Amino acid sequence: MKILSFILLLVLQLSVLQGQVFDSYWQQHVRYEMDVDMDVKHHTYHGIQHAEYTNHSPDTLHEIYYHLYWNVFKPNSSLYWHNETRKDPDPRLKKLARLKPDQQGDYTILSLRHNGAEASYEITESIMRVKLNEPLLPGQTHRFDMEYEVKIPKLIRRSGYDNAEGVDFSMAQWYPKIAEYRPDGWHADPFLGREFFGVWGDFDVKIHIDKNYVLGGTGYLQNAEQIWEKKDGQWKLKPCRKKKRTWHFVAPRVHDFSWAADPDYVRESIFAEGKELNFYYLPVGKNPQNWKKLQEYTANTLKFYQQLIGPYPYRQYSVIQAGDGGMEYAMCTFITGNRKLSSLVGVMMHEFAHSWFQFVLATDETRHPWLDEGFTTFISTMAQKVLYDKKLNLKNYWTSLIETYLGYVSKEEPEPMSLFSDSYLSHAAYWVNAYDKGGAFLIHLMNIAGFKTTMDFLRNYYRTWKFKHPEPEDVLRVAEKTTGMELDWFYNEWVESTHQVDYKLEKVEKSDKGTRITLRKIGGMPVPVDVLVVTKDADYTLYHVPYFRTLRSRSEANFGSADKFKVLKPWYDGFPLYQFEISVPPEKLKTVIIDPWFYTLDIHPDNNLWPADKKNKP
Ligand SMILES: [Zn+2]
Asked: In this predicted structure, what is the pLDDT of residue 559?
């Protein structure tokens, strides 16, 4: 009886504990009202910003921080020197040194009031610290009113005026943006060229701009009937008697707002899955026809991602020719337009996937870039193979990712994936970790738990953490709950260390039973190992050696028939060798191969093969 009540108590405590974990989640909220008056000739704007900021944290705040991103688009700025001191400086950012005064970014704060009274502030590079007139208590909402003037920089990286293809304004990271406050404190990260993080909120934005300009971006246009009309099936701007017109957007439940503007934009729109897909592009350049072909691919991509991950929660998405490559924003993307169709589609697929991984699952890009770039790369690589290349063979989907990672670690000293995005010593190390090693997190998960289970994990992750700020440990917990496995060892090895996977097919020899196969673990990182055995009469068996720390073995074959998938006893830590026997004798075997689909990113695939005379590449 005593034991029973003890267990009951334990169960009760556990459930209370779980409730507390769930209930204790909080995030800040902001409601922005912005009024922006553009001077398109001088590349400046006058801004009025009202922000109602709610402190949902249990802490009393005495200051708040704003990002003023464009302040570092100057010669001799922290952005310039951060780039100069990388091993492989980005040539684009080197151009900062040559910016003339009228090409440099700058914010002038004309007035800042906190709850109606003038507030003091200090600006250092891209960060403004505001001293609060009165403490902001837990649960309170305070008001910040700002009037300011901005010099928009010439586009050097991501945003600014006059991009290389002649788009007038690419307005991203453009407004004074309140930094995020989390259980681990302020995230007032200076802008050093990487991506961003923001407070969940609602935006109401009015932009006054010369009447001939076409705007696209985040949110829903509130006065579309005053602006747009359809003539002969084409969207055209309505005539306007005044010099400027006002574009009024609202964007609920987002953590950023971006827009682009050009007088020569063509707007085309289609409906797919109940959503409006908008395309804004310049009808000149090399391949404007590609922007028409892009539309159906965008619709198919939406459908694909909704099925794989979960519903896209907004009413519109816009693909906009702007910026300097491809970059994701809330409800839209900026993409340069003069590309081959495959590149235009590929970039759209990548940036659109960020609507799920970053714009709804709002992970901190400056701290954990692999969580959004990696997951996005994994899913968009798959989309490109299925929807564009029409390749339905699962095993080849991620070859490019695997090759990039293996190529990098064969030449360079790797850095851990847990580094902040601006802490990498080289841009190349950031790229390979955020995109390829980050994407390979899910490839590894497929090897450990199976493809279907990995897809279940993505859906569970989305369902559990949408409209929040998941941290890496939250992602790991969803993975553990979905797979029923212990995965902390995997997280530690793959994310926090630079250990590599290297197994070797040590020996294939005759035994009493038939053939004895010996595997050797050489690399620092342990993984479950697949061994494919193919006989001379073209029969095959996939043997799976689980890693004991997962506590449960993979039940999916991933490829081929389920009755040819055999799970062996687990490989325990410490043992360098692992042996198993099969009934087929060696003379009847055609080939034996470890990790046939390269899903462990084994750095020496050449020693994974028997007979050892073939080249083994992903
Ligand atoms: Zn990306």
From this structure: 87
**Are the C-beta atoms of 581 and 515 separated by less than 8 Å?**
yes
Determine the distance separating the centroid of ligand 1 and the alpha carbon of 351, expressed in angstroms.
6
CA dihedral (534, 538, 539, 544) in degrees, to 10, reads: 20
CA of 369 to the centre of ligand 1 (A): 9
Q: What is the pLDDT of residue 396?
A: 78
Residues with Cβ within 5 Å of ion ligand 1? Answer: 373, 376
Q: Where are the beta strands (DSSP E) in 298-415?
A: 316-321, 326-329, 332-335
Instruction: Write out 276-321 in H/E/C secondary structure.
Output: EEEEEECCCCCCHHHHHHHHHHHHHHHHHHHHHCCCCCCCEEEEEE
Query: Tens of pLDDT along 486-497?
Result: 999 999 999 999
Contact 371, 363 (CB under 8 A): yes
Q: Which residues of the chain have pLDDT under 70?
A: 1-22, 614
Work out the end-to-end distance of the chain between its first and last CA atoms, rounded to an integer number of angstroms: 60
How much distance in Å is there from the Cα of 386 to the middle of ligand 1? 19
Give the tens place of pLDDT for each residue, 512-525. 999 999 999 999 99
What is the per-residue pLDDT for 392?
Answer: 75
Could you tell me the two tokens for 519? 């595997």
Q: Looking at residue 22, what is its pLDDT? A: 56
Ligand 1 midpoint to CA 434 (Å): 9
Distance of CA 423 from the midpoint of ligand 1 (Å): 18
pLDDT computed for residue 540 by the predictor: 97
Q: Quick one: which of 471, 476, 474 has its CA closest to 488?
A: 476
**Beta bridge partners of residue 542, listed in sequence order:** 532, 565
